[in-house]
Specification:
Chain lengths: 135, 255
C-alpha cells in the first residue's frame, strides 16, 4: 500500500530529525545539526534492507517517489517566499559579500573535486546524462 | 461573490499553493520548450519565476516572506515551508546508493571545511573594506555569506546591532539566489554531472535552498547527494561562527 511508503518516509524524517536535535544538544547548540542528512541515510538503509527481505514493493515505493517528485515544485514555492526585497535592500555590502563568497566557493569546486574523483568515475555505474535528456 | 472567493482562497491555503505552483511549473516548462528550445531548463525558469513572485510580494507588502505575505497566497508559504521541504528532500534519498556516498568521504570533508571558511573570509573582507572595524560586526557580516541562518545566529549570539544582522542576512540571501540561478548555467563547466561532484558542490556552497534548487534544475538525481552534505553545513556554521571565527577576528582586528 502507498501509505506504507509514506509512513516509512515519515518515520525516517522524525527519527532523523530527533538525531539531529540530539547532536545539536551534544554540541551545545540550539540548532538541529544534520537532521535531514540522518533521515536520508536512514531511508536509504531501511528501503535497501526491506527490499532485500521482500517487504517493500513498487506500490509502497510510490509513496516515497511521489514526494521525491514533489521536490522541484516545493523548491519553486520556497523560492517564492524568499526575502528577495531584503537582499536588494542590503545594498552593496551585502551584494559584494554574497557574490564574492559564491564566486570563491565556485572556483574551489574543480580543485576539491579532484580528490577521489577518478576512483569514483571508475567504479560508479552512474549515467551522467539526465533521464529526461536521454533519447 | 468576491468575498466568497477570498474566503475559499484563505481557508484552502495549501491547495491554492499546489494549484499556483503547478501553473508556474507548466508555464515555465512551456517557456523552456518554446522560447529557449530547451536550452534553459524548465525548473530553472520556474525558480526564477518564484523569485520574481517573492520580489513582488515583498514590494507589495513590505514583509519578509515574499508572496506568502499576501494572505490569499499564504498557502505557497506552507507548501514551500520547512516541513514539506525537508520531507521531500528526505524522499529524494530513495534510490541514492551508499556505494556512491562512501567513496567520496575525504573530498566531502575537505569541501565542507573550505566551504565554511571561504565565504567567511570573503564576507569579512568586504565588511572590512566598507569600513567596519569591530570584531562583532565583521564576524556577523562575514558569517552571512556562509548562509543567512549562520549570519542571523552568529549576530544574535554576539549581540550585533540589528542593521548589521540585516546586512548579514541579506548577504546570505544574495549568495543563495546566486547559487539557485547560476548552478544550471555553470554545471557543465565544472563537471557537475555525477554524485561525487554534487557532494563536493553541496559542501562548498552549503546553502540548502540554493544547492537544492540549483541541482534540481541541473539533474534531479543529483539532489540527494548535494543536500546530504549541505544539511551539515549550516549546523557546523552556527557552531563555528560565534566561537572560532569570532576569536580569530578578535585577534586580527586587535592590531
Amino acid at each position: 500500500m502507498i501509505i506504507y511508503g509514506v509512513a516509512l518516509l515519515s518515520i525516517c524524517y522524525l527519527v532523523g530529525n530527533f538525531a539531529g536535535e540530539l547532536l545539536g544538544y551534544l554540541l551545545h547548540e540550539d540548532k538541529n545539526v544534520g537532521g535531514v542528512g540522518f533521515s536520508m541515510l536512514l531511508l536509504m538503509f531501511l528501503t535497501e534492507r526491506m527490499k532485500k527481505l521482500g517487504h517493500f514493493n513498487s506500490v509502497s515505493a510510490g509513496g516515497v517517489q511521489f514526494w521525491a517528485a514533489m521536490y522541484i515544485p516545493i523548491v519553486v514555492a520556497m523560492a517564492a517566499q524568499q526575502n528577495v526585497m531584503g537582499a536588494i535592500k542590503g545594498g552593496w555590502v551585502a551584494f559584494f559579500a554574497g557574490l564574492l563568497a559564491f564566486i570563491a566557493s565556485f572556483m574551489a569546486v574543480p580543485v576539491i573535486n579532484r580528490i577521489g574523483l577518478k576512483k569514483h568515475l571508475e567504479t560508479s555505474t552512474w549515467n551522467p546524462v539526465p533521464e529526461e535528456d536521454r533519447q | 461573490m468576491i468575498d466568497r472567493l477570498y474566503q475559499t482562497l484563505l481557508s484552502e491555503g495549501l491547495l491554492v499553493g499546489f494549484a499556483i505552483t503547478g501553473m508556474v511549473m507548466w508555464g515555465s516548462y512551456w517557456i523552456s520548450a518554446k522560447l529557449t528550445k530547451g536550452r534553459i531548463h524548465g525548473s530553472a525558469i520556474a525558480v526564477c519565476v518564484g523569485l520574481l513572485m517573492a520580489w513582488l510580494g515583498g514590494a507589495l507588502t513590505g514583509g519578509k516572506n515574499g508572496i506568502a505575505d499576501i494572505p490569499s497566497f499564504a498557502g505557497i508559504g506552507l507548501l514551500g515551508g520547512a516541513m514539506f521541504r525537508d520531507f521531500a528532500i528526505v524522499a529524494t534519498a530513495y534510490g541514492a546508493t551508499f556505494q556512491d556516498l562512501r567513496r567520496s568521504g575525504k573530498a566531502v570533508i575537505v569541501a565542507l571545511s573550505v566551504g565554511l571558511v571561504l565565504p567567511f573570509i570573503c564576507g569579512a573582507s568586504v565588511a572590512f573594506a566598507f569600513g567596519y572595524r569591530d570584531a562583532v560586526s565583521v564576524t556577523t557580516i562575514g558569517c552571512g555569506p556562509v548562509t543567512y541562518i549562520v549570519g542571523a545566529v552568529t549576530g544574535a549570539a554576539l549581540g550585533a546591532k540589528s542593521e548589521v544582522i540585516a546586512l548579514s542576512i541579506a548577504a546570505g540571501l544574495v549568495k543563495s539566489i546566486a547559487v539557485m540561478i547560476a548552478t544550471p548555467m555553470i554545471a557543465k563547466r565544472i563537471g557537475l554531472n555525477n554524485p561525487h561532484t554534487a557532494m563536493v558542490y553541496g559542501g562548498l556552497m552549503g546553502t540548502h535552498s540554493g544547492v537544492g534548487a540549483g541541482l534540481a534544475a541541473t539533474d534531479p538525481r543529483l539532489v540527494p547527494y548535494g543536500l546530504m552534505v549541505s544539511t551539515f553545513y549550516t549546523g557546523f556554521g552556527c557552531l563555528l561562527g560565534p566561537s572560532l571565527f569570532y576569536l580569530i577576528l578578535q585577534h586580527l582586528l586587535a592590531f
